[in-house]
Design goal:
Low-confidence stretches of chain B: none
Mean pLDDT of chain B: 86
Number of helices of chain B: 17
Largest interface: A-B, 38 and 36 residues
CATH topology of chain A: ABC transporter involved in vitamin B12 uptake, BtuC
Strand content of chain A: under 5%
Strand order of the largest sheet of chain A: 1-4
CATH class of chain B: Mainly Alpha
Number of domains of chain A: 1
Low-confidence stretches of chain A: none
Largest sheet of chain A: 2 strands, antiparallel
Largest sheet of chain B: 2 strands, antiparallel
Oligomer: heterodimer
Strand content of chain B: under 5%
CATH topology of chain B: ABC transporter involved in vitamin B12 uptake, BtuC
Radius of gyration of chain A: 21 Å
Order of helices and strands of chain A: HHHHHHHEEEHHHHEHHH
Shape of chain B: globular
Number of domains of chain B: 1
Helix content of chain B: over 70%
Helix content of chain A: over 70%
């Protein structure tokens, strides 16, 4: 048997993984069901974009959390503090460039926002590195301590943020060119929401590419599936994990900037308040799955906005309801990760 | 007799014994030793939190379950009293009805949460309880017809417990024998009874099984114990004691709202108290709650002094700002998880064991 025939046979023997598309269908189905309920098409467009924007920001924040959990069974209850830190850093950076943010020219606005995002990501990533080293590493494989110690990390982080920026809320205004909305027929869509959706898509695409097309991504996915197997093949999962943790923190910082701009103000408590939402998203997605996390975030965003319009009282519980429904359908989440 | 009262679980450290006796004496004679409304309020809060923290320790320290829904049961107890008295008037019957209703609600809810989610891993359980507790808090602040919404409910208590009621016209040792004093001593008495009851539970064969589950769930299961059942019971018991603590809080404050009994800050406080005091020993709850609440109320005064002394040093001044007391307790919390995971009590006991 020739070599090429052998590889061909090997390839044939490899079972192809069937892509599970059903959860993907949830999004359009949900959006379509909402049309008759809402009644007006233009309102529907507005709400859908609001939901997508919110979902994208949540995804950016939650993706790191879910990967870190998948890779090392580490669930960081202090993830929220990275969000807050990112947002506060943005207020400082943008505060020094009022001339540029208040200018009507898009280019100057972008020149102001990009450094803000960059600073937030770099600093939060560095803080993530320290956080991993000081807070998380000593309590590996001890879930009880891990929950408590990351909680403690969040308390300390939040208090330190109060030390630096003060305990009160700080307004974080959108740059001039990002304000207002675009009109599509009768539907008004806020410009900033379009930008948030675009950034979210870019992050998702980049992450998808890294995870599915590069060697590092392959190792990460393999590590999520079965850590010990990858280690026994000679790869240092630990180092990989630190990398993922840092990138995850940096993304949380980016998400914090976007979330702060979305709400137009930042408070020291903002990260803690989102934490529950993040947990719901990664539970819905199947702990450790990036694709599931993406769909989960968008579902949460859409449901929150539709419910907020249709039944404001229910909207406060819509996330939990969504989680219960999804878990009743798929108890392990939308895309269960193999080992659990 | 003492052995009977304490269920054979002695402090086992001379220093700890002294500390506990000091706390007991302090709480018993608080109205006479420390005059003023603030001191009495602090003492009352310590009593309430001893019960609450001990009930959380039952779950975290003895069974090894992290739950973030503990304030939910605390809140149910407080709201039970508040809602019953607003509806039925300030009578003892209303208090009984409110407490009973709250206990039943907590029983049902904790059973439900326990049976549904105690089978899963610790992390998952922590996340689920966090979500449920948040939802419950939202619910309480939204149903304003029943709960008074964000404003909460102010209500009156039976006349014997009001400051207006006087046992005798003459002050005793310089303290007016009014209703406030009666309610304080009622509170202390109930606290002691509840604490001893919990001590009984953790030192019973049932309590031993809980500790076995904490140490090695698989082995406990292999020995023939239905661990899910035991974990659920532990969850229920701890919820019931938390409910009673909540009822005490509402009676003492004559007010209840979402921030006083349901907020996540309280949950964090309890967690800190249990860990700093010492997990897996109820005396830790006493030490932790006392230390934390005294710090919360008096460290700020100390920090005010330090802060004004350091007025010229920019960053340091902000670090010791009176509002940043939680920062220092947070650091103490993290350090205690690393350095002495058994808390103050565990440390003292270990020292007593080393020096015979």
């Amino acid at each position: 048997m020739s070599v090429s025939a052998a590889t061909a046979a090997a390839q044939e023997a490899l079972p192809t993984v069937k892509t599970d598309l059903v959860p993907l269908l949830l999004l359009p189905v949900l959006a379509l069901v909402a049309v008759p309920l809402i009644g007006s098409f233009s309102t529907w467009v507005t709400l859908t974009f609001a939901g997508l924007a919110m979902g994208m920001i949540i995804f950016i924040i939650a993706s790191g959390l879910t990967l870190v959990f998948g890779l090392m069974d580490v669930l960081n209850f202090g993830h929220g503090v990275f969000i807050t830190l990112g947002a506060f850093l943005a207020t400082t950076v943008l505060g020094t460039m009022v001339n540029w943010t208040e200018s009507e020219r898009l280019l100057l606005n972008l020149l102001a926002v990009l450094p803000a995002i960059l600073v937030a990501m770099v600093v939060v990533g560095a803080v993530g590195l320290v956080f991993e080293r000081v807070i998380i590493r000593p309590v590996y494989g001890q879930p009880l301590k891990q929950i408590m110690i990351t909680m403690g990390g969040m308390i300390i982080g939040e208090e330190l943020i109060k030390v630096v920026w003060g305990p009160q809320a700080i307004p974080l205004l959108l740059p001039a060119a990002f304000r207002g909305s675009l009109l599509f027929g009768e539907a008004a869509v806020e410009k900033y929401r379009l930008i948030a959706v675009a950034i979210g898509l870019v992050v998702f695409a980049a992450m998808f590419w890294v995870l599915s097309r590069t060697k590092i991504g392959l190792l990460i996915r393999a590590g999520v599936q079965d850590r010990e197997m990858v280690e026994s093949l000679g790869y240092r999962i630990r180092r990989l994990f630190v990398g993922v943790f840092v990138v995850g923190s940096a993304l949380a910082g980016l998400g914090g900037v976007l979330w702060g701009l979305y709400n137009q103000s930042v408070t020291p408590q903002m990260g803690g308040q989102v934490t529950v939402l993040l947990f719901i998203v990664i539970i819905i997605g199947g702990m450790g799955s990036v694709g599931g996390c993406f769909i989960g975030s968008l579902l949460v965003g859409l449901v929150a906005n539709y419910a907020g319009f249709l039944a404001p009282k229910v909207a406060l519980f819509s996330n939990i309801l969504l989680m219960v429904i999804v878990l009743m359908w798929r108890p392990e989440g939308l895309y269960p990760v193999g080992k659990r | 007799m003492f052995s009977h009262l304490l269920s054979g679980d002695f402090p086992r450290s001379r220093v700890l014994l002294v500390v506990l006796l000091l706390i007991l004496a302090g709480l018993t004679f608080a109205p006479f030793a420390f005059p003023g409304a603030k001191a009495l309020n602090v003492a009352a809060k310590i009593c309430i939190f001893i019960v609450l923290v001990a009930s959380f320790d039952l779950l975290l320290g003895y069974t090894g379950i992290v739950s973030f829904a503990h304030t939910m049961f605390f809140g149910i107890g407080a709201y039970g009293i508040a809602m019953a008295i607003t509806r039925l008037g300030p009578t003892w019957k209303a208090i009984a009805v409110g407490t009973a209703a709250a206990l039943i609600a907590s029983l049902a809810l904790s059973l439900l949460i326990g049976l549904f989610s105690l089978r899963v891993k610790a992390l998952f359980y922590a996340m689920i309880t966090l979500a449920v507790a948040t939802a419950f808090q939202t619910l309480a602040s939204q149903l304003s017809d029943f709960t008074g919404g964000e404003d909460g409910l102010s209500f009156r208590v039976p006349e014997v417990l009001t400051p207006g009621f006087s046992l005798s016209g003459h002050p005793f040792l310089g303290v007016n024998l009014d209703g406030k004093l009666i309610s304080y001593y009622l509170l202390v008495a109930v606290t002691i009874v509840l604490f001893l009851a919990m001590l009984r539970i953790v030192n019973s064969p049932f309590g031993r099984v809980l500790q076995a589950i904490r140490e090695n769930e698989f082995r406990a299961e292999a020995l023939g114990y239905r661990t899910v059942l035991y974990r659920t019971w532990s969850n229920v018991l701890s919820a019931l004691f938390a409910t009673l603590a909540g009822a005490l809080l509402a009676l003492w404050l004559r007010y209840n709202g979402p921030d006083t009994s349901l907020s996540f800050e309280i949950m964090i406080d309890i967690l800190l108290m249990v860990v700093i005091g010492g997990m897996g020993t109820l005396y830790g709850a006493v030490a932790g709650a006392t230390l934390f609440i005294i710090t919360q109320n008096y460290l700020q005064d100390l920090m005010k002094v330090a802060s004004s002394g350091l007025a010229g040093v920019p960053l340091l001044r902000d670090l010791v700002h009176p509002d940043r007391w939680l920062l220092w307790l947070g650091i103490l919390f993290v350090l205690s998880i690393y350095r002495f995971p058994t808390g103050i009590v565990g440390k003292l006991r270990a020292r007593a064991q080393r020096a015979p």
